[in-house]
Amino acid sequence: MEKLTLRKIDAASGIPYELLLLADETVDAIDQYIFDSDIYLLDDGVQNVAVMALYQNSSTELEIKNMAVIESHRSQGIGGILMDRAKVIAKESGYTTLVVGTSDTGFQQIKFYEKNGFIKKGVRKNFFIENYPLPIYENGLQLRDMILLAHDLPE
Hints:
Number of helices: 5
Mean pLDDT: 93
Largest sheet: 7 strands, mixed
């Protein structure tokens, strides 16, 4: 794998919507959290290959609001690299829990998070119906509920 560099950017330098839209459906949905999030870009020396947005829910809980990898770089361990960095960032910043939400039809994403130490902790009923203007489909099913997963960070 080529050399990858993770860097934190600020909204003033430009929001990488093209990457964020790989994991969220609309710019309007992204705008609900992105200006209050820390944004990280992962590049391979040629192009940005991944993005991650981290949002402070409370003094103890950090949420992964968005994590996406461009198609040409998927299935190469980049998601795992981002996840490891998110855990380090959260721990070094004094958080005790890292959380993420994904669709109830996102079977692959749920499996990825569970593989990375997350456990299911709740459901936001009708989240995708109430927060998006048009129906969204994944794996042939309409997104309805958001599955919440949490990872407790070691002391």
